[in-house]
Amino acid sequence: MVRQTTPIEVASTLREDSSAIYLDVRSEPEFKAGHPAGAYNVPLLHLDESTGRPEPNAEFERVAAGALPKAGAIIVGCQSGGRSQRAAEILAGLGFTDVSNMQGGFGGARDPSGQVSVPGWQEAGLPVETTPLPGRSYDELSAG
Q1: Would you give the DSSP letter of residue 77?
Q2: For residue 83, what is the enclosing H or E element?
Q3: How far apart are the C-alpha atoms of 111 and 88, rounded to whole Å?
Q4: What does each of the 144 residues of the chain score in pLDDT, given as a tens digit?
Q5: Residue 97 forms part of a structural domain
Q6: Strand-pair partners of 74
Q7: Three-state SS for 104?
Q8: Catalytic pick from 14, 75, 78, 91?
Q9: How many domains does the chain have?
Q10: CATH code of the domain covering residue 36
Q11: Own/partner pairs, 6-12, CB within 8 angstroms, 24+ separation
Q12: Is 106 a catalytic residue?
């Protein structure tokens, strides 16, 4: 089962547990535009350049399993919480034992009227960066 958490709780976990990992499963362009400080990027989906539509990342399981510790705390986030929930379920199915989904994601979840229903990482004023730490970009993780 995947636990649910909030951006504020995630920030606290990351401060208190230096081994905890934030896994951003948004696309590479989304990640490069801004992401939680210290995040790793393994996209669940890629944008098909010819159609502009999202396509499953066929390498998601291989790259995640090769780059992340199965027993450590993994907090999964995306833009609003949907992709990350799916990715967290996949990781749990691969045998990762401490997986959480960050509700609200980076940009916040919105209700049908477009109002923010769950504030995201950015709206909470938490640390954001545009350059990943060494070894945390998808290019580097997928090569390993």
Answers
A1: E
A2: helix 82-93
A3: 22
A4: 799 999 999 999 999 999 999 999 999 999 999 999 999 999 999 988 889 899 999 999 999 999 999 999 999 999 998 999 999 999 999 999 999 999 999 999 888 998 888 899 999 999 999 999 999 999 999 997
A5: yes
A6: 21, 99
A7: coil
A8: 78
A9: 1
A10: 3.40.250.10
A11: 6/102, 6/103, 6/104, 6/118, 7/102, 7/104, 7/119, 7/120, 7/121, 7/124, 7/126, 8/124, 8/126, 10/36, 10/75, 10/77, 10/100, 10/102, 10/121, 11/121, 11/124, 11/126, 11/127
A12: no
39, part of any domain: yes
Residue type, 138: Y
Q: How far is CA 8 from CA 26, 76, 86, 126, 127, in A?
A: 19, 14, 21, 8, 11
Structure tokens at 127: 């640390």
Q: Which amino acid is at 20?
A: A
Instruction: Give the tokens for residue 6.
Output: 């909030």
Helix and strand numbers (H, E) in the chain are 5, 11
Task: Tokens for 13, please give them.
Answer: 């976990």
Q: Which domain holds residue 121?
A: 3-126
Per-residue model confidence (pLDDT) at position 49: 85
